[in-house]
Amino acid sequence: MTVAGPGLGSPALPLGSPIAFIGWYHLALFGVLVPWAAYRTRGRMVALTAYPPLTRTLLASVATITFLGLISLFVASRQDVHLRPAGPPTLLHLIAGLVLLVAAVAVALPMWKQAVLARSRGVYFKMPRSAGEQAAWVTVSLAAGVFEEIAWRGVQTSLLAAVLGNAWLAVIVCAVMFALAHFNQSAISMVFIFVLSLAMGALVAFTGSLIVPILVHAVFDVIAGFSYARLGRALGYVPPPLGPAPVPLAAERA
User: Which of 1, 86, 193, 230, CA to CA, is 20 to 30 A from 129?
Assistant: First the structure.
């Protein structure tokens, strides 16, 4: 059965559409389990006694992000969540995405610089320096751009809209969940991610598809990693010694 969207823009379910067990599973997975896993990851990062190889860590992230994205694609197919855009983005859509990207980078850049100056241990995990690390960073950025937008702005928001009966409330609730899914980062980073998630939800509504949000997300992440590497070289960043004492984590990849 094919269903039409409620005006939030494709992808979307009609408001009030019935949610099957697989839909509730997705809501619980991304609304509860993924944030809980991020919280546990924060604890493991604080307790690290040695830095793991960055390339291996990034490739493990690619595998996790891809796996979760494939779950979202399966749920979308079972719940009739429309992910295919009606057409290519227009020039106006691309301009809107570029404006959001530039604004996001402008806001985040001082946060990135402060994290490097503070010698945060978390900076190590987002500062690709060798060619192999840079290739892995680009790969994880592309995977995050595609699969996280499908999972959050595509499927999770659509399911929430069907449950809550209000598309914009769904965007807000999903933004809260998305911020909590980055619990392994600092509080200010989570606030930034919440606001950016709201903007991405609005971008989906404006463009009627996930294409431009995917591009914005992927390019932002690439810029973040290479900016951290540039700042690290300029400011002489050296990963701080590790130990069991809690150390605040700086803003991670959004």
Answer: 193
> pTM (2 decimals)?
0.89
CA nearest 8: which of 153, 205, 212? Answer: 205
Structural domain boundaries, residue 203: 21-235
Q: Residue 250 falls within a domain, yes or no? A: no
CA dihedral 167, 210, 149, 137 (to 10 degrees): -160
d(CA 38, CA 156): 18
At residue 130, does pLDDT exceed 70? yes
Tens-digit pLDDT profile for residues 152-167: 999 999 999 989 988 8
In a domain, 240, yes or no: no
Question: Are the C-beta atoms of 249 and 184 separated by less than 8 Å?
Answer: yes
Q: Tell me which of 131-140, 199-208, 241-250 is least confident.
A: 241-250
Q: How many CB atoms lie within 10 A of CB 201?
A: 24
Residues 126 and 134: their CA atoms lie apart, in Å, by: 10
